[in-house]
Amino acid sequence: MGEASYANNSLLQQKVISLTKPIRDEAITCIYKERLPQSLAIADLGCSSGPNSLFTTCELIETVETLCREKTHESPEYIIFLNDLPGNDFNSIFKSVEYFKQKFSSQVVGGVGGQCYITGVPSSFYGRILPTSSLHFVHSSYSLHWLSQVPKGVEKNKGNICMARTSPLNVREAYYHQFQKDFSMFLKCRATELIKGGRLVLTLMGRNSCDPSSNESCYIWELLAETLNDMVLEGIIKEDKLVSFNIPFYTPSPSELKVEIENEGSFTLNHLEVFEVSWKAACGDEELNDNNNCGYRVGQLMRAVAEPLL
C-alpha cells in the first residue's frame, strides 16, 4: 500500500505486457481454433498485485470473445489461475475481482458458457503448482529473471549485491548454473500441467550481450550496490550484512534461453524476440519530458522492487 508500493509503481511492467500483446493474441487464437474448448484454462505465473494482476487476463478474454463473435460460437467457461509466492498480496487482487467480473459480463457472447472462475495459487512456479494436463495456456511476464534462490558459492562477491563486472568467475558461473536449473525445472513442470498442444508465452528481462555482467544486465544493481557501500562507510549499515546480501536475479541471452528450451525438450520454440524498453517507460505521459519527475519515478520503481529484498 502507499506511494512506494509495487502496485503504484509498475507502469513499466504494464507497458511490457502491452508490447507483447500480439504474441499472446496469436498463441491464444491458435489454441482456441485448434481445440474449440468449452472450458478454457489460463494460468498467469508471477501475477504480483496491483493493476497489472488481471490486465493480461482481460486482454486474453477479449481476444477469445472476438473469435467467438466472428465464428458465432458461444463463449467458453474461463478458469483463471493467478500464481505468485505466498507473500504476495492476494487479498488486494481478490478485492478487485468483482469489478473485473462486471467488465467481463459485458463482453461475453452468452449461452451456457461465459462464466469466469478465478483462483489464487500461492506457490513457487519452480515446482508443480497445478494438476496434470489442466491448462490450455500459460503466461508469465517480468518474473522468470528472478531465480528460486541466491546461488550457492557467491560468498566472495564482496562489494556487489548481484552478478557484476567485478564479480569473480565462480560467481558468474554460479548464477548461470542456477538459472539453468531453475528454467529447466520451470519448463518441465509446465509441460506436465499443459494439455498436449498447449501454449506458453514468457516475457522476462534479458540481454543482447554475450557477457552476463554487461551494463544492460547489471547497471541498475551496481548503482544500488554503490549506495549500500557508501552507507557502510558512513556506519549506517554493517559490512557483514552487505557481504551476505545477494539478489537472486539473472538476465539470460536469447541463445541461453534457446539452449535450455532445446535441452529440456518438452516445448517447440515458435517465437523468440528481443525488444528494448527505456527506463522512461516507468513514467506517466505527463512526466516524460520532466527529467526530475521521471528520475523520481524510476527511483520509486526500483525502491518498490528492492526495498522488500533489503
What does this structure look like?
The chain is an alpha/beta fold and 310 residues long. The chain has helices at residues 11-19, 21-35, 55-70, 90-105, 169-193, 215-233, 239-243, 254-264, 291-309, and strands spanning 39-45, 77-84, 116-122, 135-141, 194-203. Helix 4 (90-105) links the parallel strand 2 (77-84) and strand 3. Helix 2 (21-35) packs across helix 3 (55-70) and helix 5 packs across helix 8. The longest helix is centred in the middle third of the chain and has 25 residues, at 169-193. The radius of gyration is 21 Å and the shape is globular. The mean pLDDT is 92.
Count of helical regions: 9
What is the CA–CA distance across the termini?
Answer: 18 Å
Unreliably modeled segments: none
Overall mean confidence score, pLDDT: 92
Strand content: 5-15%
Rough outline = globular
Please provide the ordered H/E string of secondary-structure elements: HHEHEHEEHEHHHH
The tally of beta strands, per DSSP, is 5
Question: Largest sheet, if any?
Answer: 5 strands, parallel
Q: Write out the strand line-up for the largest beta sheet, numbering strands in chain order.
A: 3-2-1-4-5
